[in-house]
Write a structure and sequence with these properties.
Number of strands: 18
Strand content: 25-35%
Shape: elongated
Number of helices: 11
CATH topology of the largest domain: Rossmann fold
Bound molecules: thymidine-5'-diphosphate, magnesium ion
Helix content: 25-40%
CATH architecture of the largest domain: 3-Layer(aba) Sandwich
Number of domains: 2
C-alpha cells in the first residue's frame, strides 16, 4: 500500500481538502480470465476483498482455482484455502483445469487463527477462501457457519488483506433466501460482490458484479463449463439460440442488452387452459411481476383472453432477463402460444410495453439490431421511434403491442 494511504487502524487520519488528496490511479492486476477481468474493470485491486456468490455446483471453486492458476502463471504467489474439500481433491481439479503451478499453494483449513498463520508463512499476493461459511474462530462461542462467525471471520481476513495489500477472494454460498452468507452481512463489508449464475444443467454461466467499489457494475461476463473447466464463450448469442426449433408456437427471439453486450435470447411461453380458480403463473429467468403486467396488457389492450389460462414463461439457457426491451418479446411469445401461430424464424422483436399497450423505445437499439443481423435475422419489430436498421435487416415499426402482434401475423385467425 502506498505511503500516505490509509493503512492500519492505529494511525490517525488527517482531514485534507479534496483538492489535495492523492488521486493516484488504482493498481489493477489482471486475473488472466478475460470474462472476469471484464466484470472487474480490468482485474483485482491489491488489498481489496471480493465476494463470489452462487448456488452450489455452479462452478465457483472451479473459477477461482483457474484464477489462482492464471495468476501464479503470471508470477504471483497464491494460496487456496479450502474448507470443503481435501487438498488432494483440489489438486485433481487443478489438474483438470490446467492450474498446476509451483506458486499455487493449497491448504485444507477451517480454523481462522491457523488460516492467518498459513498466510503469514506463504506470504501470498492472492488468496481464495472457499468458502467463508466454513471458516470459524474458536475464540467465538457461536457455531461454525453462524452469522456471527461468518461476519467475524470475514472482518479479520479483511483486516489482513487490507494491511498487507493482498487480493482476497471469498466464496459465499447463496442461502435459500438468495442472499450471500446470511442476511446480507457480507455485502456491506467487502469491496466487490460478484454473482455467478446460470443453469447448472446447461454449460453457460454468467458473472455479474452487484457491487464494485472500483468501477461500474454494468458489465457481465459469459463463460461455459466444459470438461476442462470454464472458458470464454466465443459466440454467446449463438449458444443461447443453439437448440431453437423452428415452427413452434410460443417462442420469440429478443436482442437484449446485458451490461454493454448485446445478446440474443429466446423467450418461451406456454399458455394452457386452467382448471384452477387462480390460474397458475410460472416465470423462470423473467420477472414474475413483469409477466403479470404483460398478461394484463395482452388481455385488455390486445384483446387476447389469457387471464383465465395457466401461463408458463421462461428465458432459455438459464438466462435471467432484466432488460425492459424484452417485454415485447415475452408478450409475443405468450400471444403466439395462445393462438398457436409461431413467430417467423427470421424475426426478432424488442421494445418496452407500457400499460396503455404502447411499444416504447429502449436503449442501445443500433447494437441490438446489429447483433440480430449478424446472426442472420432479416426482420425486426421495433417501437415507432427506433433507429434505422443496419443493412440486410428490415425494421417493422409498431406503435403498439397489438400492431406488433398483427405485423408478426400471430394474432387469432
Ligand atoms: P464447482 O466449482 O465445484 O462448483 P461450486 O464450487 O460452485 O459448488 O463445480 C461444480 C460442477 O462443475 C461439478 O458438478 C462438476 C462440474 N465441472 C465440470 O463440468 N468441468 C470441470 O472441469 C470441473 C472442474 C467441474
Ligand atoms: Mg465449491
Amino acid at each position: 500500500m502506498a505511503a500516505g494511504a490509509r493503512s492500519d487502524t492505529a494511525a490517525v487520519s488527517i482531514p485534507m481538502s479534496v483538492t489535495d488528496v492523492s488521486d493516484e490511479a488504482l493498481r489493477v492486476v489482471a486475473t488472466g480470465i478475460p470474462e472476469l477481468d471484464r466484470v472487474l474493470g480490468g482485474g483485482l485491486v491489491p488489498g481489496s476483498v471480493t465476494l463470489v456468490g452462487g448456488e452450489p455446483g455452479i462452478g465457483k471453486s472451479t473459477l477461482l482455482l483457474q484464477l489462482l492458476g492464471q495468476m501464479s502463471q503470471a508470477g504471483a504467489t497464491s494460496l487456496y484455502i479450502t474448507g470443503e474439500e481435501s487438498a488432494s481433491q483440489v489438486k485433481v481439479r487443478a489438474g483438470r483445469v490446467g492450474a498446476i503451478h509451483a506458486d499455487l499453494w493449497l491448504v485444507a483449513e477451517t480454523s481462522l487463527p491457523n488460516v492467518i498463520a498459513h498466510i503469514d508463512s506463504v506470504k501470498p499476493e492472492v488468496i481464495v477462501v472457499d468458502s467463508v461459511q466454513t471458516m470459524h474462530d474458536p475464540m467465538l462461542g457461536s457455531a461454525p457457519g453462524s452469522v456471527a462467525q461468518v461476519r467475524e471471520c470475514t472482518a479479520q481476513l479483511l483486516g489482513v488483506a487490507k494491511s498487507r495489500g493482498i487480493s482476497l477472494v471469498l466464496v459465499g454460498h447463496v442461502t435459500k433466501e438468495g442472499t450471500l452468507a446470511g442476511p446480507r452481512v457480507l455485502e456491506h463489508i467487502v469491496d466487490t460482490v460478484i454473482e455467478f449464475e446460470g443453469d447448472r444443467h446447461h454449460g453457460l454461466r454468467i458473472l455479474r458484479a452487484t457491487k464494485h467499489r472500483f468501477g461500474p457494475t454494468s458489465e457481465v461476463g459469459l463463460m461455459q463449463m466444459a470438461d476442462t473447466g470454464l472458458s470464454t464463450v466465443d459466440d454467446p448469442s449463438g449458444s443461447f439460440l443453439a437448440d431453437r426449433v423452428s415452427g413452434v408456437s410460443g417462442s420469440a427471439v429478443v436482442p437484449t442488452i446485458d451490461g454493454q453486450r448485446p445478446l440474443l435470447i429466446e423467450l418461451q411461453a406456454l399458455v394452457a387452459g386452467s382448471s384452477l380458480a387462480t390460474p397458475r403463473r410460472s416465470a423462470q429467468g423473467v420477472d414474475p411481476g413483469r409477466l403479470a403486467m404483460l398478461l394484463a396488457v395482452l388481455e385488455r389492450r390486445v384483446g387476447l383472453a389469457v387471464s383465465s389460462c395457466d401461463v408458463y414463461a421462461l428465458a432459455v439457457g438459464g438466462a435471467r432477463i432484466t432488460d425492459p426491451g424484452a417485454d415485447a418479446g415475452l408478450a409475443m411469445a405468450v400471444a403466439s402460444s395462445l393462438t398457436g401461430n409461431p413467430v417467423a424464424d427470421d424475426l426478432v422483436v424488442f421494445g418496452e410495453v407500457g400499460l396503455g399497450g404502447e411499444l416504447r423505445q429502449v436503449g442501445h437499439q443500433a447494437r441490438r439490431l446489429a447483433e440480430a443481423s449478424r446472426h442472420g435475422f432479416r426482420r425486426a419489430i421495433v417501437p415507432n421511434s427506433a433507429v434505422e436498421a443496419p443493412e440486410g435487416l428490415m425494421v417493422m415499426r409498431a406503435p403498439t403491442l397489438a400492431a406488433a402482434v398483427a405485423l408478426a401475423e400471430i394474432g387469432p385467425a
